[in-house]
Fold this sequence. Notes:
Strand content: under 5%
Number of helices: 6
Helix content: over 70%
Shape: globular
Order of helices and strands: HHHHHH
Largest sheet: none
Radius of gyration: 15 Å
Amino acid sequence: MQLDKIRGDQTDQLFKAILQLQSVEECYEFFDDLCTISEIQSLAQRLEVAHMLQLKKTYDTIQLETGASTATISRVRRCVDYGTGGYEKVLQRLEDEAQKE
């Protein structure tokens, strides 16, 4: 299975820790301690690239609006098209949440 490459005790601990976060502010605090600014920005950029790909934006538009390289856009595209569905699941939940507000 595709997820086996990242599965392990340390990864389980990380994901369980993330699931304990109860607010956006707690996420800022935890990720500020856990990651560099660049790592956080890279993760946020990838999520936005996935969102824009779902909206059928062109690579040029995505690159212009996010600053992502074509290599990053292509990698995210592969995950969106052939991955485990993680981007789709999270983006749908974010959209559902936004509609409730």
